């Protein structure tokens, strides 16, 4: 910014703003780091040394949280919902992205906006009909029912990410194939799908994260303990039994967060690419 | 005789091959590209929106076979319900305050990080983006621990630096708990406005500044007449996203306070849930859902029209 350029002549013109920003961003990094540190402390150390790094790191809290709360089951459910929900959403959205960007369908802008309304819709405006629909179909409190809902609500986001990508593929790529008698489906199968793989990866990853973070649908559409995703199951730590010490719930939080942290570390580039589109979802 | 059978099977074959041909071409595009996604939308979103509007004119406990039509009774109840009024004003407070934080702090930070006066701007941006990678449930749990009255770290910290006087029951004080939640919510979400402003600032053509400077514009004039107008579209997007985000708030309230103390943190998104699923009043719950729909629709449609144009062109 030019008006900040004035500061350029001042002494320490670089150190002062950097220090200010660093101090400010401590507010963002301190709570997660504190939670991480606390999770590795023993009961005694939590009391003796609440702020610092663990002197004698121990995995006791993790071990205990894992066993007491059936984390294996919760993880399985969360993985299932996130992976299956996103996979279904990709399958639904990819042909649609092809149709909307390569074909002059009458009223396509209107249809497209209609499909995208899902992105901005408060879930509270549809939950009651969805609840009774799933009950009528016998899908209430089933894993399959929740996967269907996640697929339907994840589709618009993937449609948005992939339409932007597919419309950027030059039509000339398909011309030769069409001259050789390739059908619309053939072009989709052999040209669009392989070329769109990067967008599929980005969209799938972000949608996976969105479902992992989702709470409202899972809370309402499920009731059996053994079908719960981790984001609902983790609330078991709020009962008095666990909240008597800080290390157990901290370990539970770290465990629930771990897959997302790993995703961010290993798929950082993909996530950054799709982040802006992802912003409107969350 | 045999000829007729041969003819018939020939007809069937041509029909089938034509069908196969159609399904490989426009049929595939039409059925899987348009009809199927639209059908999924209708079943899971379109019909539920309409049915929810219908439910808002009924009395229904969500279970009984009879849904009783009661006209606008629920809407009259809405006006006279202090619980609704409380949730409504809390949501309004939430939306305005969160928006001020997203725009105020978001814009200031972005401009500072973009000024070239700060080292490692990308690093600081990712630090502030970090909480967005957490679910609001885990964010809520984390701050419940930090703010808990007995052994919470914040109180210990305040005591440590001699500021005991500032200690409050952070999550149990009617006057302040809602602000605590709003700040936590803004904390978790700030990375998004920051990234958007960053993209907006990077897109400004630096020649604009040079031209204005040649014409003798002062630095403040530059900021006011060049930077802010160039950021206007981004500011609009951030505003719409932020308001909708606040409107549907549920997770943090549900995890941290359950709407308490005494409804002090009750917001529309949570009140709707309480009415529908705790008090089994689907008709009235649907009415609150309609209110949320009306408030989000204007923002959502304006925003999505722009998004759709971008994606389709």
Radius of gyration of chain B: 27 Å
> Sheet with the most strands of chain B?
2 strands, antiparallel
End-to-end separation of chain A: 30 Å
Question: Which fold does the CATH topology of chain A refer to?
Answer: MetI-like fold
Under the CATH scheme, which architecture of chain A would be assigned?
Answer: Orthogonal Bundle
Number of domains of chain A: 1
The SS-based structural class of chain A is mainly alpha
- Side by side, the strands of the main sheet of chain B go 1-2
Descriptors for this entry?
heterodimer; A: 282 residues; mainly alpha; MetI-like fold; B: 313 residues; two-stranded antiparallel ribbon; 75% helix
Report on the structure:
The complex is a heterodimer of chains A (about 280) and B (about 325). Chain A has about 280 residues and is mostly helical. Chain A has a single domain, classed as MetI-like fold (Orthogonal Bundle). Helix content of chain A is about 75%, strand content about 0%. Chain A contains 14 helices and no strands. In chain A, helix 5 runs antiparallel to helix 10 (about 185-215) and helix 10 (about 185-215) crosses helix 14 (about 270-280). The model of chain A has no long low-confidence stretch (mean pLDDT about 85). Chain B has two domains: about 1-55, no CATH class; about 80-310, MetI-like (MetI-like fold, Orthogonal Bundle). With about 325 residues, chain B is mainly α. In chain B, helix 9 (about 190-205) packs antiparallel against helix 11 (about 220-245). In chain B, strands 1-2 form a two-stranded antiparallel sheet. The longest helix of chain B has about 35 residues, at about 80-115. Chain B contains 14 helices and two strands, in the order ααββαααααααααααα. At the A-B interface, helix 1, helix 2, helix 5, helix 6 and helix 7 of A face helix 1, helix 2, helix 4, helix 5 and helix 6 of B.
């Amino acid at each position: 910014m030019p008006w900040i350029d004035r500061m350029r002549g001042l002494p320490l013109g670089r150190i002062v703003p950097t220090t200010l920003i660093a101090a400010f961003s401590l507010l963002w990094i301190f709570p997660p780091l504190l939670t991480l540190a606390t999770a590795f402390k023993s009961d005694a150390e939590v009391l003796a040394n609440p702020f610092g790094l663990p002197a004698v790191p121990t995995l006791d809290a993790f071990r205990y949280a894992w066993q007491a709360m059936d984390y294996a089951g919760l993880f399985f459910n969360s993985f299932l919902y996130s992976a299956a929900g996103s996979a279904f959403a990709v399958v639904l959205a990819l042909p649609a992205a092809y149709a909307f960007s390569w074909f002059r369908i009458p009223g396509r802008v209107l249809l497209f906006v209609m499909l995208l309304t899902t992105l901005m819709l408060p879930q509270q405006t549809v939950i009651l009909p969805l609840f009774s629909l799933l009950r009528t179909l016998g899908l209430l409190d089933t894993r399959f029912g929740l996967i269907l809902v996640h697929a339907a609500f994840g589709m618009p986001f993937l449609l948005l990410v992939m339409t932007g990508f597919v419309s950027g593929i030059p039509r000339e790529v398909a011309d030769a194939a069409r001259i050789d008698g390739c059908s619309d489906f053939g072009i989709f199968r052999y040209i669009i799908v392989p070329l769109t793989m990067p967008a599929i990866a980005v969209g799938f990853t972000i949608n996976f994260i969105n479902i992992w973070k989702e709470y409202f649908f899972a809370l309402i559409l499920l009731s059996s303990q053994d079908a719960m995703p981790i984001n609902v199951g983790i609330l078991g730590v709020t009962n008095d039994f666990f909240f008597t010490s800080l290390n157990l719930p901290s370990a539970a939080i770290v465990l629930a967060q771990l897959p997302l942290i790993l995703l961010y570390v290993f798929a950082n580039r993909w996530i950054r690419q799709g982040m802006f589109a992802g912003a409107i979802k969350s | 005789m045999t000829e007729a059978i041969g003819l018939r099977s020939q007809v069937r074959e041509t029909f089938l091959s034509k069908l196969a041909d159609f399904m490989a071409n426009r049929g595939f595009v039409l059925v899987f590209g348009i009809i199927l996604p639209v059908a999924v939308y209708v079943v899971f979103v379109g019909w539920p929106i309409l049915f929810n509007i219908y439910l808002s004119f009924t009395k229904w406990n969500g279970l009984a076979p009879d849904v009783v039509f009661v006209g606008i009774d629920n809407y009259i109840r809405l006006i006279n319900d202090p619980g609704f009024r409380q949730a409504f004003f809390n949501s309004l407070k939430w939306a305005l305050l969160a928006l001020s934080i997203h725009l105020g702090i978001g814009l200031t930070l972005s401009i500072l990080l973009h000024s070239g006066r700060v080292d490692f701007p990308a690093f600081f941006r990712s630090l502030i983006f970090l909480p967005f990678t957490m679910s609001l449930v885990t964010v809520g749990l984390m701050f419940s621990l930090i703010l808990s009255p007995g052994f919470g770290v914040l109180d210990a910290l305040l005591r440590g630096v001699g500021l005991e006087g500032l200690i409050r029951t952070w999550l149990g004080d009617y006057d302040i708990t809602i602000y605590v939640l709003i700040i936590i919510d803004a904390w978790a979400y700030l990375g998004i406005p920051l990234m958007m402003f960053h993209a907006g600032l990077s897109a400004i053509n630096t020649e604009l500044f040079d031209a204005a400077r040649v014409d003798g514009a002062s630095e403040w004039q530059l900021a006011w007449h060049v930077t802010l107008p160039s950021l206007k579209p981004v500011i609009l997007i951030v505003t719409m996203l932020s308001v909708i985000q606040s409107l549907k708030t549920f997770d943090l309230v549900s995890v941290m306070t359950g709407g308490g103390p005494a409804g002090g943190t009750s917001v529309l998104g949570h009140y709707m849930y309480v009415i529908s699923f705790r008090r089994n009043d689907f008709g009235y719950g649907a009415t609150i859902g309609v209110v949320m729909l009306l408030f989000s629709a204007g923002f959502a449609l304006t925003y999505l029209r722009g998004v759709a144009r971008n994606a389709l062109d």
